[in-house]
Amino acid sequence: DDDDDDDGGGGGDDDADLSSAARWLLRRPSHGGCFIAAVLDARGTFRLRTDTLGRCPVLMRDFGGGVWILGSTPGGDAPHVRDGWRCHHPRHVLAVDPIAGDLDPTCTVRGDARSRSRATRRLPLIPPNVEPCTSGTDALLAFRGPAFKPDVGRIDPANESEGVLTVGDDPDWDDGMDAASDRLARGLVAAVHHVATHHRCTHTRPLGVLFSGGVDSTALLAVAVRIGIPTVAATAGWTGEGAKEPLDISPARNAALTLGARFELEEVSEIREVIDALRALHRVVHGMDVVKAGVALPVFFAARALARSGCAAALAGGGSEEVMCGYARHSARPRDAQNLGLSGLRSLHHRDLQRDSAATTTFGVPAYQPFLSGFIAEFAQNLPTRLKLKPGDVEKRVLRVALEGPLLRVPRSLTRRPKLAAQYGSRFNVALQKLGKVLGLGARGVSSDAVAACETLPDDFSFERRPDGGMVHGVAIVPPPPPPAWALLYTSGHNSAATYHTSVLQRRRCACVVPFSPTDDEATMTCEADEDAAFLRRCASRFARAVGLPLWAPGVPRYTRRVARDAGSSGDSGVLSGDSGTLSEDGDSIYTPPASVATDFAAALHRLREEYPALEGLIVGHVHDMHALLAAEEACDSAGLRCIAPGWGQPQSGEILLKCRGGATEMLVTKGARRGEVIADPKALKALVADNGGYLGVDGDARGGPVDMIPARAEFYLPDQTVKLDELL
Hints:
13% strand; disordered N terminus; 24 helices; alpha/beta; globular
């Protein structure tokens, strides 16, 4: 790629002194291993790049005086992640200038002053495909491990179709399934074998599997056993007083027994063990919250069991949901399944991988995700969605077919288990609910506060209670939320407000509100999109005052369909001309912003980050617009920021709707729609709300329900703050 060669990290003449090998090393995506590569130019500037998916997270810290330290995820006695350590964005090249002592975490390239002055050198999201050696995988399967016994006599005829996996009865859905499943099975064999040989696994240093009995961990365990690698499967669960047996334990034990692997069960029954684990996780997990805690706990305790068994490394199923379309949101929106997978992969290093890596390396057991290796990731991501999803069938069809196929022959009784989230299958969600009660914070609804309190909870904290149920020595102290490190992108009324409210409950604090950029001349607006953009900007300004946050006046370009001038100009053609955005052929529901808007969006976020150096990411209110979400994620990716959409896939404004019916929030409706007809008359709007049974935003589109509304009064507003219609119109 010629554009990729014209500049290095810092641009200019420095790159002329970089050898071609060093240039290649910086751009070369990894094939599966996790590594850090560094080169030195004539000036002495280090250029560093890491694994592009973030499978081996890297933290960095400025110690002052131009002294920067970079290291892998802290574990054991490593520094606390709250001590100034922050995650490096895995797709950005780092440039460390030894003379100025500066570190540029987004390593910019020289470009056109108008559009590329802050463009960023980013590495590819997914490592390029690596084809497994057919003869090599055949040899491993033929000469290493035992073949598994079939399910003869073990399947209850009444449950013969349990899980459902229909293959071969519909050519339109199954064309190419045999070849894809064979290639996937070989990729799994190559990826697992790569990890085992890298760590020289033996009977005294076996390979571990974080095991739940689900299809992902079963695939990893089955492959390891099938090719003769000494393996330990570890499962963890909450078995405290009065708790039912975790749903993962029995299937996991039976699966390990069937596959012939050693099984280790880590039962956690004391709440103090949970508190100690959370205290340790707070030290090493970046952005620890109740959602991360629910998944980190079973990983933490299973890793402890693997370390006790002397395991050299652990296999985890990270990334399989994204590349195999395993989440419910994929099934709900099959047309967007591939894009949803890419969206998940972009945030995976922040959301899951750093958490799991920190939890396992605490015990000296590095974690690997074979589904994200070069042998599988790109191949699986690019498979047709129909091979992964089918209405009325199980998810990850191609993976289940690969396991049951002629290469691996995993018993069908192990491949049909329905999906179950880790925190529920292990019942650590029950432990977190109990945690709030034993800390004196209440029985329900305070899990986020309870998880936060564990970070600073004294070792000698007393659980002693008075006869009336109160705490003898007082309740646990909940530390304040972290400093503001987020920006709220206010692109609508109701969904943006709902997103803000959800973020407050999740202990995320915002530093500012970001609106759309101002219209060139509001006095000469040329179309309805201009009026909508100006209206939403006024709404954002009023919302910012109501919650006591500054408004970032420059704003971001108009990247959503509603406020794009060109979004409705194509008629029935589907594709817009010139540098305009693109509409879908099946109607006007999908709008892709033009390249110039995407570039300006990224440049705006670079400027935002310069004004707010501590900014961690952007909070967006997108709920159903896939292309708007992707545009925001792409711009954040370029600026090295996270992008989160707490309400994605949920009923529009669900949080606000519940509050609205409870009377805690009053909504101001300014425009509505019924059967495609826009309604702006106040009396008609009141009738529309009444017809919707008191709900606001039902269906969330022109099929019914208001399309323009903002909170007039809300529990997250400052005291005595009320929004009036004349302030907006």
